[in-house]
Amino acid sequence: MALLEIRNLHVKVENHEILKGIDLTVNAGEVHSIMGPNGSGKSTLAQVLARRESFQVTQGEVLYKGKDLLAMKPEEAACEGVFLAFQYPVEIPGISNAYFLRSALNAVRNYRGEDELDAMDFIPMFKKKMKLLDMDDKLMNRSVNEGFSGGEKKRNEILQMAVLEPKMAILDETDSGLDIDALRIVANGVNALRSPERAMVVVTHYQRLLNYIVPDFVHVLVDGRIVKSGGKELALELEDKGYSWVEAEATA
Amino acid sequence: MRTEEEMSNVATTSRELGNYLEAFTEFVKRAPGQNQGWLRKLREDSFAHFCEVGFPTTHDEDWRFTNVAAIAQTAFRLPPAAAKVSAQQIEPYRLAGAACELVFVNGRFDAKLSSVSSLPKGVSVGSLADEIRRDPKPLEKHLGQYLNTQRDIFCALNTAFLEDGAYVHIGRGTVLEEPVYLLFLTTASDAPLMTHPRNLIIAEEDSQAIIVEDYVSLGGGVAFSNAATELVASEHTVLSHYLIEREHTEAYNVSTLRLQQGRSANVASHSVLLGGGLVRNNVHPVLAGEGADCLINGLFIGNGRQHMDNYMLVEHASPHCGSRQFYNGILDGHSRGVFHGRIIVHKDAQKTDAKQTNRNLLLSDDAQIDTKPQLEIYADDVKCTHGATIGQIEEDELFYLRSRGIDEPAARRLLLLAFASECLERMKPGPARTRIEELVNQWLFHIQPGSPEHGKGAPDRALHGEEAG
């Protein structure tokens, strides 16, 4: 059974049809990249999978571990192992990063019938994962994402992923706004989480990230449809020829 | 709206005044210190003024958003002789880590329930009634000298019925690190009761102290607490004052904190309104000495049909003083909040730095907030800013938390707590803050939209302990 199976997915956002029939199958252990020009629907797809409820599914279905993902609330999907690294991580003043992460981890552990972690167990684990992402300890006591630099926000997303250990990680433009050093750190963090039990969907506009996170499959999303799929070499071809090439091919 | 308007036009009728007159006539027969001319005059003048003016209506600018007709039309009486409250009943309210605890039952000091032993040298704490009987002369200089009974009729009423409350004296150079805890209990009653707690807190030069006033109902019944505190912060004092209102929703609570700040006095006022049906919280600092600084911090959380009115009057009377007002409101159900932030900068108060911020979260379509800044500036070299926001819980924030596995009720609670934390974090860590954090946490459990308790009114029992019934 595939980990994720998207069939003929149509999605409306504020009454505009953004996704117009997506089919995609992702197996455990695979890394898929979804590339496409701005406005093609990449982020919408990522957020629908994380169960953003204001996005309206008008047709199609999504099976995750054989279950109806679209019937799940965001928190259920998360507890079942779906994780979205946000393109624009949200700032939450007044909640410390450590408290937030521990609440999230314990929510997930509760759901799975595991014991909650207390601060004594949590802090060493948290520190280890922060080291992996070369993050300053001080970020632990700061409010979630508040006053973080762009790079710190993205690292914080991957840190959350490292702590929550999802089955299905969706990275939404995790490379945007990162300089090359930060990109390398983030990619290392992501690669450390690659495993045969875990699948990743890497949404990106540019091929650059894929030099570091090498995908098994590349899909090109144009105007709400996947118009071309291939191996990692497709990303290079896109980099070379630009999206107009597949757009032209798609409309031909 | 119409009925409200009509009700607001009802002035205090002669029947209600008759009730107060009867109560006053009885009261002065036994009031402490009636043999002191100044005190007798203070009470009589205040009562006469109250009779002349009566309760305010919504035509009064200071009461535009708060209709006190329900108070005006109720025949309250003074509590009869001491009600019995057991030590066990107040166990849940004891403040661990307090320097001393003064318990007032229906406005009167209860020595048995209180603990005032082993206070450091220079600190004197007790019942104001006892102090009036023991040594009234030194009180004359302060008692009634700061509250404006002409402007505020509730202060006049409090002064007319001035009987008991806390008397706190912190001697020169004395540092009291643990809080002075003042617990005001109203017991269950069939007839509507009124109490007029009156506190006098004097901090002499260069002293430090923390005062906590906690208002609690033990059992149901209509009750009216009309409290007033005069706090004198002499030169170079560092003081924190906390007010916690958590009475049940049949209670009317009017409180006035009048701060008199001398040169370089640094005072923080923290108000936390959780309970009460109709609540008016007046905070009135006068920055009388140069370089005085005042933080006025508040949090109000309303639900059901609670009405919570915060009236700030900050008077800058000297140069180089600073005041910062921060009030956050969370309103759910049909509750209504008011923030009225008045700043007066007197002519000589140059280099004033006054700031005012009121932020509000409305959790239901029926909740309402009226927020009104009012700046009167008579000096020409000042910095005054004000701002107010009204919003809802951000969907983006909610989705972000939920996408990490935190369920919706918990995510909402976390966001509310974060909003409340802005106020909590302005309080210095210590017993008072810990108590308030616990209360706010418990309270947020109850106002949470989507939870089974939602819309059922403020939680009475849970916060008053099982012993309360």
Could you explain how this protein is built, in words?
The complex is a heterodimer of chains A (252) and B (469). Chain A is an alpha/beta fold. Chain A has one domain: P-loop containing nucleotide triphosphate hydrolases (Rossmann fold, 3-Layer(aba) Sandwich). In chain A, 35% of the residues lie in helices and 28% in strands. In chain A, strands 6-9-10-3-11-12 form a 6-stranded mixed beta sheet, with helices on both faces. In chain A, helix 5 runs parallel beside helix 6. The model of chain A has no long low-confidence stretch (mean pLDDT 93). Chain B is of the alpha/beta class. In chain B, strands 2-1-5-8-10-12-14-16-18-20 form a 10-stranded mixed beta sheet, with helices on one face. Chains A and B meet through helix 2, strand 7 and helix 3 of A and helix 8 and helix 9 of B.
Walk me through the topology.
The complex is a heterodimer of chains A (252) and B (469).
Chain A: E1 4-13, E2 16-26, E3 31-35, H1 42-49, E4 56-64, E5 67-68, H2 74-79, E6 82-85, E7 92-96, H3 97-111, H4 119-132, E8 143-144, H5 150-164, E9 168-172, H6 180-192, E10 199-204, E11 217-222, E12 225-230, H7 233-241, H8 243-251
Parallel strand pairs in A: 3-10, 3-11, 6-9, 9-10
Antiparallel strand pairs in A: 1-2, 1-4, 4-5, 7-8, 11-12
Chain B: H1 2-8, H2 14-30, H3 37-53, H4 69-72, H5 87-90, E1 100-105, E2 108-109, E3 123-127, H6 128-134, H7 153-160, E4 166-170, E5 180-187, E6 193-195, E7 198-203, E8 208-218, E9 223-233, E10 238-246, E11 251-261, E12 266-273, E13 278-287, E14 293-302, E15 307-316, E16 322-331, E17 336-345, E18 353-362, E19 368-377, E20 383-391, H8 395-402, H9 408-424, H10 431-447, H11 461-464
Parallel strand pairs in B: 1-5, 4-7, 5-8, 6-9, 7-9, 8-10, 9-11, 10-12, 11-13, 12-14, 13-15, 14-16, 15-17, 16-18, 17-19, 18-20
Antiparallel strand pairs in B: 1-2, 3-4
Helix pairs in contact in B: 3-7, 8-9, 9-10
